[in-house]
Amino acid sequence: MKPQGKSKKSDQKPDFMKAGALIILFVCVVGFTLNMGFFSVFKTAQAGNVASIDFTLRDETGVAVLTSNQQVVREAIEAGEGVLVTPPLQLEVGGTITEEIMPVDLYITDGSQYYPVGSFALLSRELSTMANACEGMRVNDRKRVPFSYDEEPVWSLTAEQFEKFGGNFSSVQAGEWVPLGFSTTPIIPVDNTTPEVPIRMTKVVDKTADEILIRYGYTSVDIVLNELAG
Asked: What are the DSSP calls for 122-168, one per residue?
């Protein structure tokens, strides 16, 4: 009998090693086919980036005064509350806001249609707060940020001044919301027409026989980071 030689080692790899190679290959291929938008969810907003945000301005009781967030709009309608609506904002993260007032488009809605009603005056302090608050956020992150104004956002107006701003002094009562026009330039009527002026919702804090105290600032803003570029 011929001596039996040593059997040759098989070159075949175990099935689990094949499967592992296939999985690694599959993951690599999928990774290369994903667009860069997928990876933006891991990126944090840094100074100089451009952030697209939904925002909601709230008063001291938590009531939404102005929002671009559709969920907030739906909740307000379901609760039978009114809310002013505006499109999402685009802000430079950490950017300096030079305009004292920035008008944004303003709408009211019944839940099915949106009706334009002029513009809303956002203040530079509010815009700066939102731009700075975005730093460090990721896409889909959300946060509530308190407002801090350079001075107490309350005005004491005479009856004449209040009427000039567009209010009705004789009928207004403390606690009411009043839309007042805000502008950094004089309002000059042309051809018996009043120029469109951005408004803010102000709350009457107190009223006497010939004076009225109104709050034109808000307590906080809710931010949702939708997109990030740059």
From this structure: EEHHHHHHHHHHTTT--TT-EEEEE---SS-SEEEEEHHHHHHTT--
